[in-house]
Structure formats: C-alpha cells, structure tokens
Amino acid sequence: MHPGFCCRQESRRLGNGNARVQPVIAAEALTGPVLHHGEGPTWFSEFNELRCVDMLRGEVVGVDERGSISRRVVGSVASFVRPMRGGGAVVGLESTIGATREDPVRASPSVFSEPFETIGVRLNEATCDPSGALICGSMSDRGLPGRGEVYRIDQSGEAELLRTGVDISNGIGFSPDGQTCYYVDSGRHAVEIIDYRNRRFNRGGAIDLSYHQGSPDGLTVDSDGNVWVAMWGGGAVLQLSPDGRLIRTIHLPVQAVTSCTFGGPDLSTLFITTSQLMLELEDPAVAGAIFVAVPGAIGQPAAEFG
C-alpha cells in the first residue's frame, strides 16, 4: 500500500541540544483538504478502512485506501470514534457518548453515557484501555485552562472521574503490555507516562516536548512500544522511544497537525490528520488533508470498547 511514501529521508539535528543526527521522513497527502478540523483517526479492521472525525462540523468521516471520503453528521461536535467489540462503533459527541452496531458513517449513534453536565465544556479525544473501558477527556470550548477532566466509561455507560484540572485533554495510548498509559494534556507541552497497572490515573513522569515547535496533540503507540505524537502548530509527528528519546521526525507541509494512527491491512501505514484552524498561516491546498507515511513500524490493532 503506497510503498513510495517514505522514500525521501534526510538528516537533521535535534532542537533540544542533542548532537545526534536523526532521520527525517516526509509524508504525502492521501486526500485533498477534506477536513475542517480532523481528529481521532482510527483503523477499523471490520471495514478495512480509516474512520476519523471532523470535530467541529460534527461529522464521522470514512476514508478508504484510495482516499475516497464518506461522511455522516452525528451532532454539533464529533469528538472521537472507536471500534466496539462485536462490531460497530462508539462515538463521542459534545458532552455525551453514543454507540451503533453499524458502520458509523452509515448509522447514527444512540446515546448511552453522559459523563458530565458542565456548561462550556466538551469531550475531546479518547481510546480504550486493556479491559475495554473507554478513557476520554474534556476541555473548555473556549480554551480556558483547568476546566477539563478525564473519565473512564464502562460497558454500562457509567463514568468514573479519573482526573480534574486538565487544560486540553488530548492523545491517550497504551503500551503493548497495557501497563503504561501515555497521555497528553496539551497545555503542559509534555507526554505524561502513567503507571496503569492498578488502573489508576495518577500523575507520572513526563516526556518534555517544550523544546519542539508547537504543542503535543493526538498520539498512537506502535507494536514496539514507541510513541508517535502529532505536534499542533509544529508541522510534525515525532517518534519517541518508550522513555522519551526522539527517534525520528515526520515533517508535513501543514502546521496544524492533530493526530495519527497506524492502519492498512498490515498496520504499517501511518495516517495523519490535519486541520484548517490555522488557515491564515497555511497553504489552503493541503491544510485539512489526510497524510500518509510508511515509516517502517507496525501499529497495534485498535483497542475495542466493550
């Protein structure tokens, strides 16, 4: 699948004073500027296609290997879409969570969980933990600091509050053994490393990314345990070792990079979503496009809810 996407590599010195030279990979556009604010890409093996959200348009978006697009409006906000065990999808809306046993671009979800009732706060990003529970976060819809929270949603829809005082809850991913959670609160400019063996969400060590342009946004963890982090305002995806060492950088011609995930039949293609929210600084021909790269890593299958 798209074998030529990673043929261009160069070397570049790190911006944090590290003298070692790291390879730089260029991604290529799979689509045109089809997303206003793309987020939450997830490979659905059930359909052998990518699903993501156009968050502020309230759409679930389907993308096939050729870059053809299908859409469905599910609400005023669509914050995430994740596969469900047994088929279908769980879909984050503005402040509620719905589910459907069908393809989410062909059927609207029915609400089964309402984790909070706070005015001026919306859901933002999610994944599933090794038990099949949904881990999701929230943020102020005006970007006010400290208004967000993190929740664990079980199969019945019951919500457990895991953390308060969050600025912008963003990427969440788990190590292959399920014992470590990597979490981004974008206001802190770091990826937090959380010991998840007891299913708690206590603050842990952090991978400081303040040296890099932009802020960490969405992330994914590959089958070797390396963490791939989209840099909002930084025009890049960073590959980090489990302990935070920078391994490689994927550069994009868009500053507003939002998230990434591995997909394709063998989970070797990295799909990268972008946004048009910084359009005054961007090339309108590529801002909001979905990009792909084949960096030589293999992803983990998408964790399922249920």
Describe this structure in words.
The protein is mostly beta strands and 306 residues long. It has one domain (3-293): TolB, C-terminal domain (Neuraminidase). It is built from no helices and 26 strands. A six-stranded mixed beta sheet has the order 1-2-23-22-21-20, with no helix packed on it. A four-stranded antiparallel beta sheet has the order 3-26-25-24, with no helix packed on it. Strands 4-5-6-7 form a four-stranded antiparallel beta sheet, with no helix packed on it. Strand 5 (49-54) and strand 6 form a beta hairpin. Residues 1-21 have low confidence and may be disordered.
What are its keywords?
single chain; 306 residues; mainly beta; Neuraminidase; 6-stranded mixed beta sheet; 4-stranded antiparallel beta sheet; 0% helix; 47% strand; globular; disordered N terminus
Estimate nothing, just give the exact number of structural domains.
1
Briefly note the CATH topology name: Neuraminidase
- Shape assignment: globular
Average predicted local confidence, pLDDT: 92
Counting DSSP E segments of at least 2 residues, the number of strands comes to 26
What share of residues are in beta strands?
A: over 45%
CATH class: Mainly Beta
- Radius of gyration (CA) equals 18 Å
Secondary-structure arrangement, i.e. CATH architecture: 6 Propeller
Order of helical and strand elements? EEEEEEEEEEEEEEEEEEEEEEEEEE
Between the first and last Cα atoms, what is the distance in angstroms? 31 Å
Q: Which range best describes the helical content: under 10%, 10-25%, 25-40%, 40-55%, 55-70% or over 70%?
A: under 10%
* Main beta sheet strand tally, sense and closure: 6 strands, mixed
Biggest β-sheet: strands ordered side by side in the sheet: 1-2-23-22-21-20
Structural class: mainly beta
Corresponding CATH superfamily: TolB, C-terminal domain
- Extract low-pLDDT stretches: 1-21
Q: What is the helix tally? A: 0
